Amino acid sequence: MTTVRSTWLALAAVALAQTAVLADMVIDRVRLVATGREIVLAIIPVDPRDLLKGDYVRLSFEISRLPTGLLGGAPPPKADAPFYVTLEKKPDGSWSAVKITQRFPQDAGGDRVAVKGRLQLGSWSDSYVWPRYGIESYFVPQGHGLQLEALARDKKLAVLVAVDKAGEAAIKGLIVDGKLQYEEPLF
Amino acid sequence: MSWYRSKVERDLARWQSAGWVSEDGASAIRAEIAARKPVLSAAGVLAVLGAVLFGFAVVSFVAANWDEMSKLARLLLLMGALWGCYAGAGWLFVRGLPAFAHAAVLAGVAVFGASIMLVAQMYHMDGSSPAAVLLWALGALLAAGLVRSTPALAAAFVLLAVWSGWERGLSGTAHGVFLLPWATAAAVAAWLRWRPGLHLAALSLAAWIVPLGYLIRDRHGHWLVAAVGIAAALVAVAAAPQIDRHIRASRPVFAYAVAVAFAGLFIMQFLDDLVDPRTVELTLGRFIALAAVTLALLVAAMFWALHTDNRGALWIAYIAFAVEIFAIYVRMLGTLLNTSLFFLVAALIVSALAWAAYRLHQHQMAVASGARGAAA
Q1: DSSP state string for B4-42
Q2: How buried is B16 (Cβ within 10 angstroms: 0-12 exposed, 13-18 middle, 19+ buried)?
Q3: Nearest C-alpha of chain A: how many angstroms from B260?
Q4: Cβ contacts of A19 on chain B, cutoff 8 Å
Q5: Which residues of chain B are within 8 Å of residue A17 when distances are taken between CB atoms?
Q6: Strand partners, A61
Q7: Interface pTM (ipTM) of the complex?
Q8: Distance between CA B122 and CA A138 in Å, rounded?
């Protein structure tokens, strides 16, 4: 009888642990999207497809290519190591990068927001770096990728991004011609 | 009927007619073999295949990103599937159907992975995919350890290898962190006494070590890979009794170690200078020295494999020898030796080997007959 019980216990422990991991992922994202500072980034989409995750639009931003001058003379960050890009709000409401630092900048807040980025292997040159912020994929229902692509051709697209205090970023919604079109439901 | 059974059946008929095995003895042997549990049953294999297909169904359900359903509903559906798989596994264990139960556990692990992907998709998460694979691997490892599930352990090894390869691709570093979950998974395989799991452990470790040469020492660390392989082979030879006392693994360890050492030496001889010819100068002397070391190592490995009846290592050494000779031939073609001279050298080496093998065989026969004489 004990073996039967221990089997059930082991299975329950596995199911509980795996559920906890998934719940933690969801809660973390919900917290980020709900409480993070909102910024708007203009996008240029392309349309590949993720084998495992389905249709998605690959987003590229102005801040996806930064001049190495923003490093202030420091060497480019190592591949896959986190660094911080400080964005500053312009009078027209857009955000643009003002500096790249290895550590979280002291002067974040107000008109400045720091976003955590990483470089992939080989995504830097003498004059530019191409960071990724974890907000480059926008998943759409199957078959809707082309629709969004057409939208991007005719209209000005931007994403509403939430950034938390640690510089973690998440997509919160899609902005078409300055109007919030899709707001991502939290659940 | 299994391969082993039909072989014993043939041998028994011969031994019986020679009068070495009595009628009673033969039927006792047959009964003992018939009572053995088969390692792989058709039902078990099909159940695991079914679980894998179920996993694919769930993953493609996620990939379809069905927008008719809210995020919460999709998540609850997958949670239901997850708990359903493990509950089903428990029910099947209680019913005394462990093969199906393990398939259900594997399906649960697949649903767990699909759920990770779904969450990533729902919140447009990007750039963290290797981390997601690691999470999945750890979930599989947990199931393997707690439920003693060998299919989940196999999945964990595969996922760990994918995770490490992906991380290496992104960062270009050695990614030593891999060894931590790998060692845990290998310990689980040893604890479950699951030999295929130990092979998976060795395979995934070898697959991690061999590319290491490109990631350390400014992309020219292949000598270190070869050294690790040779060292492991020497340990497997020198400490064979100590290793085998715990778990009979010295022979496979030797075979994998020879494969790793050969891979490192092969890259040094034939591929290293292709990466960036300016940073490596492969002089002719160095090349010949490396080739000589490689051939000597392979011949030594063959002898040791013959001596210890290690078929796996013997095959690896044979194949490596053929690959090495062919690669030398291609490299030397039109540059140094002409074709006929090359074949002459190769023929001399192989003939010498054949002669040595023949002498060794004769020596073994003599020892065997001497022992028989002493016994009689």
Answers
A1: HHHHHHHHHHHHHHTTSS-HHHHHHHHHHHHHSPPSS-H
A2: middle
A3: 26
A4: 79, 82-83
A5: 139, 142
A6: A43
A7: 0.79
A8: 9
- Is the Cβ–Cβ distance between B131 and B101 less than 8 Å? no
Please tell me whether residue B84 adopts helix, strand or coil conformation. Answer: helix
Size of the A and B interface in Cβ pairs below 8 Å? 140
CA distance linking residue A123 with residue A118, whole number of Å = 10
Tokens for B361, please give them: 């065989």
User: Do the chains contact at B172 and A79, CB–CB below 8 Å?
Assistant: yes
Residue A96: φ, ψ to 5°: -135, 155
Q: State the angle between helix axes of B179-191 and B129-147 in degrees (0 to 180), rounded to the nearest 10.
A: 20
Q: Give yes or no for a contact between B8 and B33, defined as CB atoms under 8 angstroms apart.
A: yes
Q: Provide CB contacts within 8 A for B258, sequence distance 6+.
A: B229, B233, B297, B298, B301, B313, B316, B317, B320
Q: Residue B338: what pLDDT?
A: 61
- The strand pairing partners of A128, in sequence order, are A67
CA distance B171 to B297: 34
CB contact under 8 A, A80 and B105: no
- H/E stretch holding A38 reads strand A37-46
Closest partner residue to A17 (CB to CB) among B93, B115, B142 is B142
**pLDDT by 10-residue block (mean), chain B, 376 residues:** 76 86 85 72 81 80 68 85 92 89 92 88 76 94 94 95 90 88 94 91 93 81 90 90 83 92 89 63 76 88 87 90 84 64 74 77 74 56
Cα gap B73→B61, rounded to integer Å: 13
**CA distances in angstroms from B138 to A21, A42, B51, B75, B131, listed in the order given:** 10, 37, 19, 20, 11
Of A10, A53, A118, the CB nearest to B120: A53
CA atoms within 13 A on the CB side of B364: 11
